[in-house]
Design goal:
CATH architecture: 4-Layer Sandwich
Helix content: 10-25%
Number of domains: 1
Structural class: alpha/beta
Distance between the termini: 42 Å
Oligomer: single chain
Bound molecules: fe (ii) ion
Shape: globular
Number of helices: 6
Amino acid sequence: MLIAHISDTHIEGWGRKTFGIAPMAENLARCVDHINGLVPQPDLVLVTGDITNHGSREAMERAASILRDLRAPFYVIPGNHDRRDVLADVFGPTACPTESTEFINYVIEGPDLRLITVDSTVPGAPGGEICEERAAWLDRRLSERPDQPTVIFMHHPPVRFHVPETDMDGFEGMDRFWQVVGKHPQVVRILAGHIHLAALTQWQGVTVSTAPSMGMRLTLDLTLEHPSEYILDDPAFQLHYWSEEQHLITFTVPVRGPEVSYPFAEVTES
Ligand SMILES: [Fe+2]
Ligand SMILES: [Fe+2]
């Protein structure tokens, strides 16, 4: 099974760049073109939040108009810059098969992997949260198929990544989340976004990985002394390949212009 993973597209309204600088809609359109050219096609595409920059319906509709060009089925979840109700309304139940609009929680029964999203957002706040209700829902859904390898996807990574701005945003209920995950050894990965960097770490034996942004990379400062800034970057996405040996292999794929590859066999030394 092959999963393409897009995150943090931060789209603004029609005709506008994000913060007046970042061409995020154009970047997303280039990324969609790139994914559409992949052989094999992904079984599905996950879009892990911060789809819009300011949560407006206009920006969500602009993002949807681009994402609907994907050949593969795609699924969306909100980030802290989005509004749950607008997301669910604009994308509808095919791309956002949520069980309610109180929280955007749902399960995708993929061919080889089960994918579960639990809503980590708090309306009006930048940080993440897993409250008791969401933890109980996740526990219940994970309990349904204990033998099926499962990926959890969410906007906020449930662990600190030493990225100043997103660490400061915080995550309420982190321990509560990990208590649930610790009961379900079929969880093979947690996929997230939010930190605008391709990164991974392990927590309680589970790999947590984050997809890059669609062209707004946060500066890396492990001293944690300086406020984050962003750098205009090539848009990028990730491919997660669930292999025959049952391990999830992740590739970070930059989206540049037309690419030229050079066969090693034809390279002659000068
Ligand atoms: Fe973001
Ligand atoms: Fe975010």
